[in-house]
């Protein structure tokens, strides 16, 4: 299967910084290709195509190890990961039986908060998604003026509050969420969604974060976010079709889906086919 260059020439995550053990060889898949990677005796990150034995481009950035099967450009910037005030951590990678594009779209969806994440990111009867603004800037998608009532928006915060979100889609398989930090309302926590598309309909989800919470332990923060991710797994594993439809009339959309519709148009305009459902 020939993969379009807009997908091939991208950086893809294979692990977060806390996951690799020096000297251990890890085997996985990327875009249907067998790969292996690890840290050598000098703790230098490497990656190899297991069939051709070709060395692959590698990068360590945003608390994440990245590789590419093509000729990738510079990786998008997230300066908050360099902020010494923030605590950087990541959830355990999770495998899902769906397209990586489906995973990104689910991440962008606020409407499911009260139904899937009741008690944390949402609750009844606060189900309405207020109108928000979607823009394309420097070939990235931004959704601003997003606001949602959350009963427990962070592990160390008790009581509900309206949380402001900014969504940023920085690549076909990557998104970043900037959300109000209840402990420091003038600033925002950073939650990243970096997806490793193993195959067209199977993915691994990596979620590094840069948080401002200095009262909870790293393990408590990790488990809080891991539990939220776990609640999404049932949705992701049961979506039909597993690949993301780009046809405008294939699925019913509402005003709450403005960023999802923009994401699908953006993918279509870029010529992304890998991981998409092409036939009605």
Automatic annotation (TrEMBL):
Species per Swiss-Prot/TrEMBL record: Advenella mandrilli
SUPFAM superfamilies: Bet v1-like (SSF55961)
Keywords on record: Dioxygenase, Oxidoreductase
One Gene Ontology molecular-function label: dioxygenase activity
Keyword match Cell membrane: no
Coiled-coil intervals: none
Protein name: Aromatic ring-hydroxylating dioxygenase subunit alpha
Residue stretches making up the Vanillate O-demethylase oxygenase-like C-terminal catalytic domain: 101-269
